[in-house]
Amino acid sequence: MEKRSRDNAEHYVWGAGCDGWRLVDVPGLSVIEESMPAGTSEVRHFHARARQFFFVLSGEAVLECGSERHSLAAHEGVEVPPGQVHRILNQAADSLRFLVISAPSTRADRVNEE
Q1: Cβ partners under 8 Å of residue 32, min gap 6
Q2: Where are the domains of the chain?
Q3: Separation of alpha carbons 36 and 42, rounded Å
């Protein structure tokens, strides 16, 4: 077992200046910390197998799930079932930090809607 943090996790960049750190990355489970600058959003997509839980660490998020919109503050989250089209947005003036917990991993399991 190894202590994990952004300091030693695999880092990647996505979207318009967004960052991700793979804290846990095994076939059955993925835990990713992500950061989104103000005014950024993800592309609408779904996962065929993975169930996800988005949990806000700091800032404010909007999570679109189908036609529903969930406003999330720090220490709030929403579960997204497999097959549900979704995306996360940061419409606030400050940056957003959140966890995405997926079971199984979302590697090779993402289908963009757009």
Answers
A1: 20, 21, 22, 23, 99, 100, 101, 102
A2: 9-36+73-107
A3: 9
